[in-house]
Amino acid sequence: MQSDTKAPLALKLSAIGGLVFLLAPIALIFLYAFTTEEKSYQFPPPGLTTKWLGVTLGRGDVWQALGLSLKVAAISTTIALVLGTLTAAAVARSRFFGREAISLLVILPIALPGIITGISLRSAFALLDIPFSTWTIVLGHATFCIVVVYNNAVARFRRTSGALIDAAMDLGADGVQTFRLVILPNIGTALLAGGMLAFALSFDEVIVTTFTAGNQSTLPIWMLEELVRPRQRPVTNVVAMAVVLVTVLPILAAYYLTKDGENTAGSEK
Q: Does the keyword section mention Ribosomal protein (predicted)?
């Protein structure tokens, strides 16, 4: 039975204040993407214009950085979906010595500070004489993308009744059919949500990328360089606005996909 008790006014004001504190800087990014002043940040802006949208679309360096970010995020997410799902299936469905230790090692990369992961990867690449390329960035991003997919998949595997898989096998289904008709429908939304979160994390990652990119620039690295050496400041805000939209939309989609995860078939057994 739900209570009709209203929240105290102080609690409402605190919640509103917290939201303003978190969202006001993001609102300023959107505002300065349309300012007429290109050399400094004035508040309020002296005027508003949409010309920076066209300027941004005409900048070749922006498109190059965007293309690299999308490529890295897509490949990293694909690797994470495969390895994260397989690891989750092994940990959730099998009993073996060291299972908990493996689970801890899988989630360790996202628990460690990014600078530690970046330094360790850079040292490993130097030791193995691996030149910096798109694939070194992908390897760096895959370390934490796998964790996101793993966490989503292992939770859904544990809520899915093993009796469903046993019943499918008893009825003559082979491994591929069992996965396609029984397992995938139950874990599909969790994998989609994990993939979206992994893509968003990879797309806006900075610290690990700094140590694994060499002379390449993903979109967040490009933005960082533009802030250090400003050139047409509103262009940076237009790109930042696009990054916000690209990262927020997958996260919102992942939330709505997983909020009804308790309805997984067989989870009550």
A: no
